[in-house]
Amino acid sequence: MPVFLTKESLTPVLPAWDTKGRLEDMEQYFIALKSEVQAAQSSKTSLDESLALYKSRLQEVTAENQELSARNRTLTADVERARNDLHTTTTDFTHARRDHERAIQDLETRHDRELASVSQKLEKEVELVSRERERDADRFRREMDEAKQQWRRQKDDETAGLTTAHWDELAQLKADHGTETAALQRQVDELRLAGESRATESAGEVQNLRDTIMNLENQLQSANVVAESLRTRIAADEARYAALEQEKAALVSKTHFLEGNQEAQSLEFTTMSQKLQDAIDAKDATLTTLRKEEMLRRKLNATILELRGNIRVFARTRPLLQGEEEPAKVDYPDVDALDGGKEMVVHAPTTLSATGKERNEKHNYAFDRVFGPCSANDQVFADCRDLIQSVVDGYNVSILSYGQTGSGKTYGMSGPDGIIPSSIALLLSEMQRLLEKGWEYAVEASFVEVYNETINDLLGDAKSWDEGEDLGASIRGKRKEKHEIHHDAITGRTTVTNLSSVMLWPPPENDGQWPPAAPTGSQPADLGTSYTEKAVQQLLDTAAKNRRVAATKSNERSSRSHSIFMLTLHGRCAATNASSEGVLNLVDLAGSERLKQSGAEGSRAKETAAINKSLSSLGDVIAALGNKKGDDSHVPYRNSKLTYLLQSSLGGTAANGKSSRTLMLLHLSPLQAHWQESRSSLLFGSKVQGTHIGAAKKR
Questions:
Q1: pTM of the predicted structure, to 2 decimals
Q2: In the chain, what's the furthest Cα-to-Cα distance?
Q3: Residue 665 has what pLDDT?
Q4: How far apart are CA 234 and CA 661, in angstroms?
Q5: Other C-beta atoms within 10 Å of 60: how many?
Q6: To 10 degrees, the CA torsion angle through 14, 20, 21, 22?
Q7: 404: part of which helix (H) or strand (E)?
Q8: Exposed e or buried b per residue across 465-492, where buried means at least 16 C-beta atoms within 10 angstroms of its C-beta
Q9: At 401, is the secondary structure helix, strand, or coil?
Q10: Percentage of the chain with pLDDT > 70?
Q11: How confident is the model at residue 95, as a pLDDT?
């Protein structure tokens, strides 16, 4: 059926406007749109938080990257420096080994020549001794023969004389006895004949005759006894003669023994001479071995000290004194370590932040050695022994006692078992030990102070000059001697003009007049018996009386100057023709303090400014030594008299190639009130601790 296009068919028929439906649709659309907006806002918030987190993380990563880059550069520089040090050490060891081999070859050649010379001389002496022994033997044989013949003649004459005398005496006794017997017999016969003829005589006469006969018989018995005694005497003389014959035979046999034992004695003499020569050779070889071992010990000790560093820092906290309170809190985490504590943790006083919260800061410090309040002077010195012993080996060593006033610097340096008296005892002991190996030493001592950039002699009249504006004239009307510092570029020696010095070793033959008494004050109770003990004690007493001290708010006896105890050791070994020269500077620095804290005014303020300036110059010199790249690098020694005086002993290398070793001994106060000064000392010590200087060399 066809469809016709009409107006009605072309116009669509739509329902009327549905307002309610439209509103519902709009509400649903609004709710959906609102939920989407809320979801978008929450998503935006999370995205913002993630973005902030990523930004902070990016900043941390960037900072960490920068820190790692800086650390990488530092480690690279350290590795490069370590490589250079290793190369230098290897080269030095190679040169030392080559020199050692050459020295050994020279010594062996010299020893062979000396041995050949000694052998020839010994052979000549043995031949000469043998000839003398033969001549002595011939002369002794002739003398023995003559003595034997003379003795035989003498004994024969004595024996013959005794025998003749005995027989003559016996014959005389027999003759006398026969004569007396015959006379008695005649008398008896006569009496018998007379008795027969006089038979008529009275009985009294007969009795008299009988008595006479009895007497005669008694006399006969006595004569028989005398004859028996003569026979006994003859037997004794014969026994004596036999004993003399035996003695004669013994002397003859002894003479034969001596004549036969002469060759054995000569052989024994030769053997003893050879043993004596062997003992002398063994002694010389032992001394040579000891000298080589001493050289090896010195090299090993130098290597150990170089590995530890030519600039070392020790920190020591003194104990609380009577009446002191509120100590600072300090921890020693490795106090029980086998090699001693090296770390300390200092807690700062509690402070309030800007928001009112308490802040408890703590600072970590690490040094070569850390000593707590319970450490004694001898414990501190035990860790300084190797440095001080290297002075005997020919190195320059400086030990500087640094810290605020009242922290115990002077006590640690000059007190009982302090560094100065203990160093003297150690050096004397080492010199006695090396004397057995052929080394002889001479020790010279001086004591100076640096006061307001002026050098004074503490062993002279250091306190006899005016301290006012006119420093040229003294109260005694004489001018103060000027002390100037001179450094010898060739020998590396440092000298001060017009400076007193005392020879501590060897002692003079007559030390009754030395050391002289201290200028003022009473004499010490007991100066000891030895010269060196008296001299050292007198030096310390004189320096203590002359050194400038004054009362401040920080310390009632504050040192107002730097004192330097200078020991110079000259050593020589005649056997090896070797020599050495070492200098030990024991420096007691004046107390570092702030003008506000010390309350110094007038001349005290001037002293404090000079002290702080010299201490600052000391830090600049050590920093310049650590940053020194070559021989032309500038080190500001002349900024202070203290650093200029210690130029050859501050861990640097002098113009002659001789270098030195330095120990900085920090003294800390245990009080909380001195926290700022202690922190300044610790920061200064950390700065010195970070300084690296090359290997030390001796002259």
A1: 0.55
A2: 258
A3: 92
A4: 101
A5: 10
A6: 90
A7: none
A8: beeeeeeeeeeeeeebeebebebeeeeb
A9: strand
A10: 78
A11: 80
Round to whole Å and give the CA distance between 392 and 380: 20
Strand intervals (E) in 339-476:
343-347, 351-352, 358-359, 362-366, 369-371, 396-403, 439-451, 454-457
Task: Give the span between the Cα atoms of 60 and 510, in whole angstroms.
Answer: 78
CA–CA dist 36, 39 (Å, integer): 5
Written as six digits, the tokens of 136 are 């002595």
Tell me which fold the domain 375-465+477-667 belongs to. Kinesin (3.40.850)
Beta bridge partners of 364: 345
**First-last CA distance in the chain:** 136
What is the CB neighbour count within 10 angstroms for residue 409?
A: 27
Ranges of residues in the chain whose predicted pLDDT is under 50: 466-478, 511-529, 551, 553, 555-557, 695-697, 699
Rounded to 5 degrees, what angle do the CA atoms 566, 314, 310 make? 65
Annotated binding residues for ATP, written as ranges, equal 403-410
Alpha carbons 489 and 665: distance in angstroms, whole number = 29
574 token code pair:
């005649």
- pLDDT tens-digit map of 470-498: 433 333 344 567 888 888 877 778 888 88
DSSP assigned state of 449: E
- At 283, phi and psi to the nearest 5? -65, -45
Token output for 658: 């001789």
Query: Distance (Å, rounded) from C-alpha 628 to C-alpha 682?
Result: 23
Quote the CA–CA distance of 662 and 387 in Å, as a whole number.
9
The residue type found at 604 is R
DSSP state of 637: G
Among candidates 612, 613, 614, 637, which has minimal Cα distance to 624? 637
Residue 312 to residues 183, 214, 330, 614: CA-CA distances in angstroms? 129, 127, 22, 20
| DSSP characters over 646-683 | TGGGSSSB-TTS-BEEEEEEEEE--BGGGHHHHHHHHH
Strands 343-347 vs 330-331: parallel, antiparallel or unpaired: antiparallel
What is the Cβ-side half-sphere exposure of residue 36, based on CA atoms within 13 angstroms?
6
Q: Please choose, from the candidates 297, 400, 291, 310, the residue with its C-alpha nearest in 3D space to the C-alpha of residue 658.
A: 310
Nearest residue to 543 (alpha-carbon basis) of 485, 578, 604, 586: 586
CA dist 215 and 275 (Å) reads 85
- CA atoms of 695 and 92, how far apart (whole Å): 10
Count of beta carbons in the 10 Å neighbourhood of residue 454: 15
How do the domains of the chain map onto residue ranges? 375-465+477-667
pLDDT in tens, 622-676: 888 877 766 667 888 888 999 888 888 776 555 555 667 888 999 998 888 888 8
Contacts of residue 162, defined as CB under 8 A and 6 or more positions apart, other chains included, come to 237, 241
| DSSP string for 463-492 | TSB--SS--SBBTTS-BPPP--EEE-TTT-
Please enumerate in sequence order all residues whose Cβ is within 8 A of that of 555, keeping only pairs 6 or more positions apart, or say none. Answer: 405, 406, 591
Distance CA 480, CA 452 (A): 15
Per the annotation, where are the binding residues?
Answer: 403-410
